[in-house]
Amino acid sequence: MKSLSEGIDATRQTIDRLTAGVGDKAMTDPRGAKTLGEAAMNADGSFNGARALSWLSEALNPGKGASEADVQRIWDETQAKVRAKATGV
Residue 24 has what DSSP assignment? Predict the structure, then answer.
């Protein structure tokens, strides 16, 4: 079993490997990223689901993928429908 410090070091190395070369790319259109990890990574290293889905839509439908804004709009509309149904409105 690894020690806590070894686990933390391994996690940091993984994060560094996944974010290598991402830098400002996290602020661009995710559909142009080479990997899902690159597309979904925010500048602070956190994961962005809307960016991931945008990239995936482009991978599945080349040239016709949904933008990050489109994905977010669809999410917001779906959540509004779920809330309306839950409240009976």
Answer: G
